[in-house]
């Protein structure tokens, strides 16, 4: 049972760090990026289901991240609106900074 708690802690820590690195992002937008970084979900329906969030809110967050150039939509189902997405080069730089910040935090706590 400790495994899910650790995963939740990791996700929340990544979300907080992304939000700290990019103050212009909402927690949901930061969470969507954290989810990509941690391999938790690569489409909006899965993310919404895993985190118990309305799909429409996840779609809105995705569109903002696309506008900011952090994610790109790779496919979309016209009927369900499920969108698959990937990190852009700029998004990758942000997630790279996340990994660097996470390593710093771990070394401080050791």
Describe, in plain words, how this protein is organized in 3D.
By secondary structure, this protein is mainly α. The chain has one domain: Arc Repressor Mutant, subunit A (Orthogonal Bundle), CATH 1.10.10.10. It contains five helices and two strands; from the N terminus they run H-H-H-H-E-E-H. Strands 1-2 form a two-stranded antiparallel ribbon. A hairpin with a 6-residue loop joins strand 1 and strand 2. Helix 1 packs across helix 5. The longest helix has 21 residues. The N terminus is likely disordered.
Task: Give me some keywords for this one.
single chain; 110 residues; mainly alpha; Arc Repressor Mutant, subunit A; two-stranded antiparallel ribbon; 5 helices; 2 strands; 10% strand; WH_DNA-bd_sf
Secondary structure layout plus pairing:
Blueprint: H1 2-21, H2 27-38, H3 44-51, H4 55-67, E1 71-76, E2 83-87, H5 89-109
Antiparallel strand pairs: 1-2
What structural class do the secondary elements suggest?
Answer: mainly alpha
Contiguous uncertain segments of 5+ residues:
1-6
Characterize the overall form. Answer: globular
Order of helices and strands: HHHHEEH
Mean pLDDT score, rounded? 87
Number of strands: 2
Which CATH architecture would you pick?
A: Orthogonal Bundle
- Would you identify the CATH H-level superfamily? Winged helix-like DNA-binding domain superfamily/Winged helix DNA-binding domain
